[in-house]
Amino acid sequence: MGKERKRRVGIMGGTFDPIHIGHLILAECAYEEFHLDTVQFLPSGNPPHKTGRTDGAADDERLEMVKLAIRGNPHFTLDAEEMRRTGYSYTSDTLTALRTRNPDTDYYFIIGADSLMALDEWNRPDIICRNCILLAAARDDLPASEIEGQIAFLHEKYGADIRLIHSPDIGISSTKLRAWFREGRSLRYYTPDSVLEYMKQKDIYGENTGL
Ligand code: ATP
Ligand code: MG
To answer: Is 209 inside any structural domain?
Structure first.
């Protein structure tokens, strides 16, 4: 019997508050370089490391912005699973659920170098590493030697399979975009026009947000 190629699904997790070109270009680079069949965007529900923030968008607004941003790209999809859950949402739980549901799919979890450096503090890194291949991208000018050191460490500790995505290091973050929005600066080209329109229309990051 011939070996069938397993389905390869990329997972682009994030808060996406708001989604920006850093996320979109990263996902597209991973899709291309690793011959993925699709990339699922997975907005986090209630990220443990981001609770207590008051300047962010509501869950349904983050979801809508992701929807608008990926519209028109046939190999990008949205997975709202983590948002439907109440309480904390852990990547380890999500990956376990996905693998159980689709045992014949290989999952490629896409992360920036900042997240990779913090991965050992996430919930159950052992489960994460067992259930996916990690695709890591340069970010924040983090030296390659540090990223490689972390890859070796996670491989040693958890048997992690981590590969580097050769994507450009785009020095932008949602934190910067939220601040610029409040300052009235132009966000044009940092996120798709449709997302920008939505942000403006709903004044998502206006001065009174969350107060
Ligand atoms: P915030 O400033 O609110 O933390 P963010 O821009 O870091 O937002 P997240 O939603 O936290 O966006 O990131 C989701 C994932 O995308 C993380 O793995 C993060 O490392 C990665 N990522 C975000 N922006 C970039 C970027 N410019 N280049 C590479 N990876 C990025
Ligand atoms: Mg971040």
So the answer is: no
Domain presence at residue 207: no
47 phi-psi bin (left φ>0, alpha ψ -120 to 50, beta other): beta
Residue 37 has pLDDT above 60, yes or no: yes
83-102 pLDDT tens trace: 887 777 799 999 999 999 99
Q: Is the CB of 22 under 6 A from ligand 1?
A: yes
Total-model pTM:
0.94
* Residue 137 Cβ < 6 Å to ligand 1: yes
Q: Is residue 49 one of the residues assigned to a domain?
A: yes
Q: Which of 12, 20, 23, 108 to mutate to test the pocket of ligand 1 (most atoms within 8 A of CB)?
A: 23
Q: What's the domain range around 192?
A: 7-202
Q: 173: CA distance to ligand 2 center in Å?
A: 7
Q: Give SS3 for 158.
A: helix
Check if the beta carbon of residue 140 is closer than 8 Å to that of residue 109.
Answer: no
Q: Give the residue-averaged pLDDT of 30-47.
A: 93
